[in-house]
Amino acid sequence: MRVLITGAAGFIGSHVADLLDERGHETLKLDNLLPKAHGPQATAPDVRIGDVRDARLLDDLLPGVDVVCHQAAVVGHGLDPSDAPDYTLHNDYGTAVLLAAMYRAGVRRLVLASSMVVYGEGRYVCQDHGVVRPGPRRQSDVDKGRFEPPCPACGAALAPKLVAEDAPIDPRSTYAATKAAQEHLASAWARQTGGNVWALRYHNVYGPRMPRDTPYAGVASLFRSALQRGEPPTVLEDGHQRRDFVHVTDVALANALAVETEPTPGLLTPINVCSGDPHTVGELATELATACAGPTPKVVGGARPGDVRHVVADPARARTLLGFEAQTGFTEGIAEFATAPLRAPAAVT
Question: Is the full-model pTM beyond 0.90?
Answer without folding.
Answer: yes
